[in-house]
Amino acid sequence: MGKRLILLGAPGSGKGTWSKIISDEKGLAHIATGDLFRAELAAETPLGCEVKSYMEQGALVPDELTIKLVEKALTDKNASNGFVLDGFPRTIPQAEALGELLEKRGLAIDVVINLIIDESILIERTLSRLVCIKCGQPYNAKNMAPAVEGTCDHCGGNVVHRSDDTEETLRKRLEAYHLSTAPLIDYYGNRDLLVAFSNDGPPSDETRNRLFALIDGAKGKA
Ligand code: AMP
């Protein structure tokens, strides 16, 4: 059975980039609540319409909606074979709900990786980042651009700058992070699941090797 991981960290700390690499290489389901919400928004579903204003303002979507979305994704993506959670949980009630959802399935989290990055780098990195609106592949205009401008290397989808990656919205998302998400560091630390991981540089083999060694050493059976 594959590992069950959570990537925790401020917006722009590298959760999306590394979750994608880990899930691809280790064959784990990638569950990214931001990507799932963006897909609902793009398809103009009722849920998409409901979450639009929260996302545009850089506020957190209410827990109830977010938990329902994750419950569905855990089933849809066959998460019993292992998964990487990216951007979820973001609040203590979400973490508690996740614990219950997993317990019902006889599963548990193996490790929570807390990506640590200097806040000045984080703002710069977020303002230049890009994303494929079709498959969620992250890019960065400065050091990780797609081969053909505006086109995803993996699926040919449109690569765009996220409308919530502005300095003003990012400040709000950082506030939400400090207020609601940072308490999860203690929450998972107290459960002996948290490992800190310094991610200040651009993606590199050195970072990958360090990260994979950490995952392979986590207590669950790969
Ligand atoms: P992300 O792509 O992870 O940066 O998420 C983009 C936006 O989606 C966030 O700013 C929130 O508005 C919303 N969102 C994503 N994940 C969550 C979550 N776990 N709880 C609440 N809101 C979320």
Core attributes:
binds adenosine monophosphate; alpha/beta; 222 residues; three-stranded antiparallel beta sheet; 9 helices; 15% strand; Rossmann fold; five-stranded parallel beta sheet; 47% helix
Describe it for me?
By secondary structure, the protein is of the alpha/beta class. It has helices at residues 15-26, 33-42, 46-57, 63-76, 92-104, 119-127, 167-181, 183-190, 205-216; strands at residues 4-8, 29-32, 83-86, 111-116, 129-132, 138-140, 159-160, 194-198. A five-stranded parallel sheet has the order 2-3-1-4-8, sandwiched between helices. A three-stranded antiparallel sheet has the order 6-5-7. A hairpin with a 5-residue loop joins strand 5 (129-132) and strand 6. Helix 2 (33-42) packs across helix 3 and helix 4 packs parallel to helix 5 (92-104). The chain is globular, with a radius of gyration of 16 Å.
Q: In brief, what are we looking at here?
A:
47% of the residues lie in helices and 15% in strands.
What topology, given as strand order, has the largest sheet? 2-3-1-4-8
Q: What's the N-to-C terminus distance? A: 6 Å
Q: Give helix and strand order, one letter per element, not per position.
A: EHEHHHEHEHEEEHHEH
Strand content: 5-15%
* Total E-strand runs: 8
Low-confidence runs of at least 5 consecutive residues = none
* Biggest beta sheet summary: 5 strands, parallel
Helix and strand composition category: alpha/beta
CATH class: Alpha Beta
CATH superfamily membership: P-loop containing nucleotide triphosphate hydrolases
C-alpha Rg, in Å? 16 Å
* Backbone shape: globular
Number of domains: 1
Arithmetic mean pLDDT? 93
Bound molecules: adenosine monophosphate
Query: At CATH's second level, what is the architecture?
Result: 3-Layer(aba) Sandwich
